[in-house]
Amino acid sequence: MTDPTAPMALRATRLGRRFRSGWALRDCEFELPAGRVTALVGPNGAGKSTLLHLATDLLRPTTGELRIFGAAPGTAEARDRTAFLAQDKPLYPRFTVADTLRFGREFNRTWDQATAERIVRAGGIDLPTQVGTLSQGQCTRIALALALGKRPELLLLDEPLADLDPLVRHEVMGLLMAEAAERGITVVMSSHVLSELENVCDYVLLLKHGGVRLVGDTQELRETHALITGRADDGADDGLPPEVDRATVVETALTGRQVTALVREPDLVDRRWLTETPSLEDLLLGYLRSDARPAPRPAHGGPAEEAA
Amino acid sequence: MRGAHWLAWRQQRTLILVATLSLLACTAYVWFRRTEMLSFIAEHHITVCKGWNGPCGSLFTERLLRDNGDPIRALATLSMAFPALIGAFWGAPLIGRELESGTFKLALTQGITPLRWFAARFGLAVLYALLGSTLLAALVAWWWAPISNMLDGPYWYDGYIFNATGPAALACALFGLAAGTAAGLLTRRLLPAMGIAMASVAAVRLALTFVRSDWLPPTVRVTPGIVPKIRVGSAWSTGKFGYIKPSGAEEGVMNCPFSGAELKRCMAEHGYVARFHKVHPSSDFWPLQWIETAILLSLAITLTALTVHWLRTRHV
Lengths: 308, 316
What we know:
Strand order of the largest sheet of chain A: 5-6-7-3-8-9
Number of helices of chain A: 10
Oligomer: heterodimer
Order of helices and strands of chain A: EEEHEHEHHHEHEHEEHEEEEHH
Number of domains of chain B: 2
Helix content of chain A: 25-40%
Helix content of chain B: 55-70%
Shape of chain B: elongated
């Protein structure tokens, strides 16, 4: 799938992390190539934040290991190359914006003050302002300025868009993607907003129940899947025609007499079935809804029940 | 200032400013009051004597002690409370507030190791805890020394003086800081950590005060026959008085009346040859101070080592 000689920004080997409440991540194996924008997707509690905390050495793995450009998280090498934007966007409320940028400068060898100041000023924020008086969107901007001012090679973002209004969301995403593209930063971004990932992400890592369910290039994944729609076949529980290999069916939804299914590597050429390339959102939703087992399962309900 | 030292200064400068101003105010007040006290002593030619029954009681000494005793105790109370304040307002937020507000994620994902982040900030706090406690302990001792152990004034073994002065006061400030810091790391919340810091300082102080007289064996003062007993002076009485038989055996003080011809007769009747009084002389102040310093310092070092260990092998 991916070029084996391409440098890997993130590589997990039998990665596991257990909390008192159980395993948050278990036996995860994946590689995220450098220079890509990866969407980290999964339901709540799937282990997304745990993975990002493991990558920043805020947590240590229980089993296995994670490597950032070959280096262990927490080493000086990994620290210098990684920037992290935590979900709650923590900042020191009593610092001024200028202090906050100085904080970045004091602690990072590769600090780029000009970039950080440009990002702050573009949001109409004055440097002497106290951080505690800023709005949520402005805080996100400061946190981003801090992360990008570090000139990271790998930028980890935990739900960067949560709690932002649509306008700010759009603005932040634009800023982020422009900076990332300009400097070829590898971005890993966890998000619930699947529709917003479509235009920005070219790689995807889907976690569910603490395990990897799907990983790969979004274009490749879309091309190797198909969304098939047709009149339900009365002969089968799931309504799909008998020639469909049930092992390749990711998810089926039966609505009245119509059935829609997400199928891996489809070879169905039946003219009665409408076959289309799934959008990234279709693809992710299909995998998010489907059970952890790769085998098909009988679809008893409509989409409403499935989504519940 | 660079790097972690800049952060330490930036985060603690308000505390440092407030503490410095308060300590300066204390110093000015003590300087003024002590000067006033010394001129009062000189003006009225007051001789300073030791002990509750010291032979220098007069209306002037009464006024001297009335005017200075309570203010010295108040200053000593501040010095005694200092470790608890350091623990709650300096130690507890050091890690506790960062964990509570999530800013540790910001600090620990920069190009700095958690240990250096901790060391610079804890180091500045240690420095200030030492400066503050030294100044307060010195102020208490300085003001108290001219009228120490006198009549009904403050004595060296009073909790007010013993806990507020000497090297143990410094060690206690470090213990308070270490306890607050460790509590912040464990509870991950500021308010509970502040409470734990104050409670642990109070608990350790109480325990130490309770067992203080047991660290050293008292000195036995023996007076033969009915020769008047040595005045208690600056010594800390253990409350153990009695009579001594020729064999050296000690017997309780209630066996005979306290003085006069009756005492003489009674002692002869029982075959007592001498009287004794067990006390801790004021020279015991220093060994007792060093013992408590050692205990408090060990506690502080243990807690700091645990904090560092938890930081290094953390499971945030």
